[in-house]
């Protein structure tokens, strides 16, 4: 798709500088300090990153080589250095901050637990020793399919401690998705729980895990099961071991495995424009550096902050801003297990009040949903401890931004709108809040050392204000993905396909305004953003055509007030089209089928049945036409290639 003709209609002019109180307390609070950082990165890119890596990370073996470009775009950072990520998150804080809370946990049913750095360290060590006792060693892949509990973080940190490579699968994904990810990663171990609490229900994780393993996953030797809900689950005594039995008698210290900086820390599967999710592979040193710097630059993190990022550890945000970043800087991470609406839609604000949350980071979809519940709900709570708010995952509409600013932030908290991706590892374009004035809907300016640009089809930088183009990163950065697990070629063809392979192609279109502020305009590929979660249209299509009655399917997004994007599916059946295009029972069945194949987040919101899909003469599905129809727009495209004009009416739901 060409982005040449994308011009923006949205022009938001309001500017929100940080309050003087905020500025006074901020670590970076004058334009000159920020400008000096940017200058340094411009003038001596490697020196800039090298100094920061020495300053921010504890190395067991210092590195001499900062950036190795010899196998570009397979870049290596600090590759002759050795370190351990878990050591950097835990051990190095023990002396000065051993009793400081590392994690505050609140379960959906109000069970609360606090773990100090010393306690978390002991738990991680004990579990790391258990992993070793179960035969897990450096480089082995371990899949984690857990509820949002501290044990999910313990499992991740324990893997990092022994050099095992974790791959967390979001608990909302189905058995089928879990199986695909386990098989692609070739994992030896699965760590799961009997279940998790969400929305007043039990999420039957062990049951899904058993189902995944019954249909495949021959590489799995051991399943560790954490007892969370205590309900009855099947137990295969030869394969399964309870978490509490596995750690029984294990030592509470565990020498970290010192790994090369490039050693893979984790894989995280994400959607692309094909049916098969990609295992995004991150390295240890560069990734952690990005997590630490953005905790400082973007979240202006302070020793006594209570930092709450609401993301699940199944997503990249839950990796960088729950499991690693907050711990690496010695702060306190709040973890909440459940849904924002239990027992009512005041839960988030109730948690903020009771735990005195000071930095709160969530997704626009959650903000919009809570905004709909009315101002009187947050008004019941004391939100005065909040000092900084953040958003991530999709563009935030100015209305929701203003509500967040006024009703939640009391007009006193800057909002950091952070643009980044699973692939980038950490925030890339985001305000440094003590300096950069914000504009509702803009992620503002690239962070120091992030060379972001907006370019045209030929790779030329677009200077004209508000002219849309491809969002690219023109230089490698430490926390970037290293490859797609097991598929170097796909890594190159997905992220470096244009501009002579020189620029990282983010897959988003963007524009810059007259002040150079970035505005993300949406994906340029067939990736949907549903409630801030990435889903490939092809994934949903593959799931639909796997149903015995479906011959063909095309899936597009349509704007949705709460979710950002909703899933719209056009389906051609193997038999006859239902009378008048309506078959409620089948629609229900197909929605359930997709939930089963991928997970409930992928359920189509609308399904329309047609005798055929609209195709070009060369046989390509006319997605733009389908998108227009899904949005209820006037059809302006050329439809003369349609075999049967009647199909248009069917697609529109008019026949
Ligand atoms: O389209 C952009 C959107 O989310 C995509 C990345 O999705 P994922 O890898 O799942 O990571 C989400 C959390 C980092 C991007 O390509 N996106 C992310 N943040 C923003 C955004 N769009 C607009 N504004 C943002 N702040």
Radius of gyration: 24 Å
Average pLDDT, rounded to a whole number, is 95
CATH architecture of the domain at 531-652: 2-Layer Sandwich
CATH topology of the domain at 531-652: GMP Synthetase, Chain A, domain 3
Please summarize the sheet with the most strands: 8 strands, mixed
Percent strand: 15-25%
Low-confidence stretches: none
As laid out across the biggest beta sheet, the strand order is 12-11-8-6-7-14-15-23
Helical proportion, percent range = 25-40%
Question: What is the first-to-last residue Cα distance?
Answer: 31 Å
Please outline the helices and strands.
Elements: H1 20-25, H2 31-43, H3 45-56, E1 67-68, E2 76-77, E3 82-83, H4 85-97, E4 101-106, E5 112-116, H5 117-133, E6 141-145, H6 150-162, E7 165-168, H7 175-185, E8 189-193, E9 196-198, E10 201-203, H8 205-214, E11 222-226, E12 240-242, H9 243-247, E13 259-260, E14 264-270, E15 278-283, H10 285-297, E16 306-309, H11 316-328, E17 332-336, H12 347-355, E18 359-362, H13 364-372, H14 376-379, E19 388-392, H15 398-408, E20 415-418, E21 452-455, E22 469-473, E23 483-484, H16 488-495, E24 504-512, E25 518-523, E26 527-530, E27 533-536, H17 537-545, E28 550-560, E29 564-573, H18 584-597, E30 606-609, H19 623-630, H20 646-651
Parallel strand pairs: 4-17, 6-7, 6-8, 7-14, 8-11, 11-12, 16-17, 16-18, 18-19, 19-20, 29-30
Antiparallel strand pairs: 1-2, 3-13, 4-5, 9-10, 14-15, 15-23, 21-22, 22-24, 24-25, 26-27, 28-29
Helix pairs in contact: 2-3, 4-5, 4-6, 4-11, 5-6, 7-8, 10-11, 13-15
């Amino acid at each position: 798709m060409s982005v040449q003709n994308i011009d923006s209609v949205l022009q938001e002019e309001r500017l929100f500088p940080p309050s003087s109180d905020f500025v006074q307390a901020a670590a970076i609070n004058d334009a000159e300090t920020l400008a000096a950082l940017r200058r340094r990165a411009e003038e001596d890119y490697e020196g800039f990153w090298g100094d920061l890596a020495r300053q921010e990370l504890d190395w067991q073996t210092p590195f001499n080589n900062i950036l190795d470009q010899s196998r570009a775009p397979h870049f290596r950072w600090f590759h002759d250095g050795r370190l351990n990520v878990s050591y950097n998150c835990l051990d190095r804080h023990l002396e000065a901050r051993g009793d400081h809370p590392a994690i505050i946990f609140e379960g959906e049913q109000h069970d609360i637990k606090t773990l100090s750095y010393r306690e978390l360290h002991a738990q991680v060590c004990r579990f790391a020793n258990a992993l070793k006792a179960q035969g897990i060693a450096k480089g082995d892949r371990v899949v984690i399919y857990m509820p949002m509990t501290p044990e999910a973080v313990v499992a991740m940190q324990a893997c990092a401690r022994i050099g095992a490579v974790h791959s967390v699968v979001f608990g909302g994904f189905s058995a089928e998705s879990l199986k695909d990810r386990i098989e692609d990663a070739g994992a030896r171990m699965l760590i799961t729980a009997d279940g998790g609490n969400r929305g007043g229900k039990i999420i039957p994780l062990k049951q899904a895990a058993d189902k995944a393993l019954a249909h495949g996953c021959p590489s799995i030797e051991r399943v560790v099961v954490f007892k969370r809900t205590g309900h009855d689950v099947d137990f295969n005594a030869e394969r399964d071991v309870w978490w509490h039995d596995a750690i029984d008698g294990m030592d509470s210290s565990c020498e970290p495995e010192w790994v090369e900086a490039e050693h893979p820390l984790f894989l995280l599967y994400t959607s692309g424009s094909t049916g098969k999710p990609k295992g995004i592979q991150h390295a240890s040193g560069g990734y952690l550096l990005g997590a630490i710097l953005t905790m400082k630059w973007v979240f202006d993190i302070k020793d006594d902050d209570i930092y709450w990022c609401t993301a699940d550890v199944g997503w990249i945000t839950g990796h960088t801003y729950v499991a690693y970043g907050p711990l690496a800087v010695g702060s306190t991470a709040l973890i909440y297990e459940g849904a924002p609406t239990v027992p009512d839609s005041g839960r988030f604000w109730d948690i903020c009040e009771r735990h005195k949350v000071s930095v709160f980071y969530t997704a626009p979809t959650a903000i919009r949903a809570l905004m709909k519940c009315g101002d009187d709900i947050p008004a019941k709570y004391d939100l005065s401890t909040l000092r900084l708010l953040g958003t991530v995952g999709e563009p935030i509409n100015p209305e929701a931004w203003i509500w967040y600013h006024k009703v939640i932030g009391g007009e006193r908290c800057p909002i950091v709108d952070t643009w980044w991706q699973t692939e980038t590892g950490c925030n890339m374009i985001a305000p440094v809040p003590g300096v950069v004035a914000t504009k509702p809907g803009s992620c503002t300016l690239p962070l120091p050392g992030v060379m972001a640009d907006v370019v045209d089809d030929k790779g030329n930088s677009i200077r004209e204000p508000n002219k849309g183009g491809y969002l690219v990163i023109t230089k490698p950065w430490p926390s970037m993905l290293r490859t797609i697990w097991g598929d170097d070629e796909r890594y190159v063809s997905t992220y470096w396909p244009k501009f002579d392979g020189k620029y990282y192609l983010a897959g988003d279109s963007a524009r810059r305004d007259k002040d150079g502020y970035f505005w993300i305009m949406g994906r340029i590929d067939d990736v949907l953003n549903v409630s801030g979660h990435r889903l490939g249209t092809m994934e949903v299509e593959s799931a639909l055509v796997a149903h015995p009655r479906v011959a063909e399917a095309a899936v597009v997004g349509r704007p949705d007030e709460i979710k950002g994007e909703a899933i719209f599916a056009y389906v051609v059946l193997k038999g006859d089209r239902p009378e008048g295009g309506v078959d409620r029972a089948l629609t229900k069945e197909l929605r359930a089928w997709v939930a089963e194949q991928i997970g409930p987040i992928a359920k189509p919101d609308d399904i329309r049945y047609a005798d055929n899909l609209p195709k070009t003469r060369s046989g390509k599905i006319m997605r733009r036409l389908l998108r227009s129809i899904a949005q209820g727009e006037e059809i302006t495209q050329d439809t003369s290639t349609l075999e049967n004009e009647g199909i248009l009416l069917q697609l529109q739901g008019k026949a």
